């Protein structure tokens, strides 16, 4: 007199999902094999070489160099700390892009670079990047 006899004969109400899994795996393999075969037509634009120019274009960036002897250069032109504010204001006036670089030797103290940073901000520089100079000037 067992209450839960599992040896019943008759109709089972369980769904056999094995054939569904087999069909799913076959479809998966078919899609995996056919996916790389599909070709895509995408427009490709190859960069063209620039047209030859007879004159050198003027660079659109401003570099203030602080040399080892603590002298200043604005785009390779010697300048002083007093003249730097005026020259930077004149250089930034026609430009919508007011980015500049300050290049100095790694051996210089920060106290040498800070006045140049202050003058550049007063002149209207928006983004200032600091570069490390490794050349012997």
What does this structure look like?
This protein has helices spanning 18-34, 81-92, 110-123; strands at residues 62-66, 72-74, 77-79, 99-105, 127-133. Helix content is 31%, strand content 18%. It has a 5-stranded mixed β-sheet, covered by helices on one side. Helix 2 packs parallel to helix 3 (110-123). The mean pLDDT is 79. By secondary structure, it is an alpha/beta fold. It has a domain at 62-133: Nucleotidyltransferase, domain 5 (2-Layer Sandwich), CATH 3.30.420.
List low-pLDDT spans. Answer: none
Strand content: 15-25%
Q: Biggest sheet, strands in spatial order?
A: 3-2-1-4-5
- CATH topology of the domain at 62-133, by name, is Nucleotidyltransferase, domain 5
Shape: elongated
| Tally of DSSP helical segments | 3
Task: Give the N-to-C terminal Cα separation.
Answer: 105 Å
What is the residue-mean pLDDT, rounded to a whole number?
Answer: 79
CATH architecture of the domain at 62-133: 2-Layer Sandwich
**Percent in helix:** 25-40%
Q: Roughly how many Å is the radius of gyration? A: 36 Å
What kind of sheet is the major sheet? 5 strands, mixed
What letter string, H or E per element, gives the SSE order? HEEEHEHE
Top CATH class of the domain at 62-133: Alpha Beta
Structural class: alpha/beta
**Number of separate strands:** 5
Quick recap:
This protein is of the alpha/beta class and 137 residues long. Helices cover 31% and strands 18% of the residues. The protein has a domain at 62-133: Nucleotidyltransferase, domain 5 (2-Layer Sandwich), CATH 3.30.420.
């Amino acid at each position: 007199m067992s209450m839960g006899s599992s040896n019943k004969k008759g109709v089972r109400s369980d769904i056999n999902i094995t054939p569904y899994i087999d069909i799913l795996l076959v479809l998966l393999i078919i899609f995996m094999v056919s996916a790389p075969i599909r070709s895509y037509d995408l427009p490709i634009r190859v960069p063209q070489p620039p047209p030859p120019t007879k004159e050198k274009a003027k660079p659109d960036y401003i570099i203030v160099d602080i040399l080892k002897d603590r002298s200043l250069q604005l785009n390779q032109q010697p300048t002083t700390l007093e003249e730097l504010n005026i020259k930077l204001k004149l250089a930034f006036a026609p430009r919508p892009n007011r980015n500049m670089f300050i290049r100095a030797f790694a051996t210089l103290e920060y106290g040498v670079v800070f006045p140049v940073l202050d003058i550049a901000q007063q002149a209207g520089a928006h983004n200032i990047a600091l570069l490390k100079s490794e050349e012997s000037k």
